[in-house]
């Protein structure tokens, strides 16, 4: 069952030492319901990141995938390790060792890459609570020189067992919001 606002606030305070605002608890509930996508627009420093972690408190087996505009060097590191025969922790990911996976769009959307395999794995996907697109305005603003941001729309089609997609940013103008909804099929 979905926790109440009070349950979310109490557990967050007990575990994280933070008491979520009403909007943060509402976002947590929406993610845990799992039947709709979520867009969170809140200013810098207002606590958007807390909304990524709250669902983990109520799904002990859950995984959150956080997509951030990390440096493209992450992709180069993955390629170097794979060339050396190192599987870049896919086994640890498949065995559900990690509860949070932070990844950039280049690694997430790599054709025939790790995540394409993971998205087809029923056991893995049944544990994924949501895919969070942090700094979602980058889809619109950076998509021309980081094309994988525009490719995030393929997430829907790569997953055999779809999960909630959450887009979050402090800076979503109406035109950028419209673009994000279009790209992500929200």
TrEMBL record:
Q: Which residues cross the membrane?
A: none
Q: Name one GO biological process term.
A: double-strand break repair via homologous recombination
Single annotated GO MF: DNA binding
Broad EC category: isomerase
The leader peptide range reads: none
* Keywords linked to the UniProt accession: DNA-binding, Isomerase
The record's listing under InterPro entries reads: DEAD/DEAH_box_helicase_dom, Helicase_ATP-bd, P-loop_NTPase
Q: Name one GO cellular component term.
A: cytoplasm
Q: Which residues form a coiled coil?
A: none
Q: Which reaction does it catalyse?
A: Couples ATP hydrolysis with the unwinding of duplex DNA by translocating in the 3'-5' direction
Q: What is its EC number?
A: 5.6.2.4
Provide the Helicase ATP-binding domain boundaries: 29-186
As for family, the record states: Belongs to the helicase family. RecQ subfamily.
What protein is this chain from?
Answer: DNA 3'-5' helicase
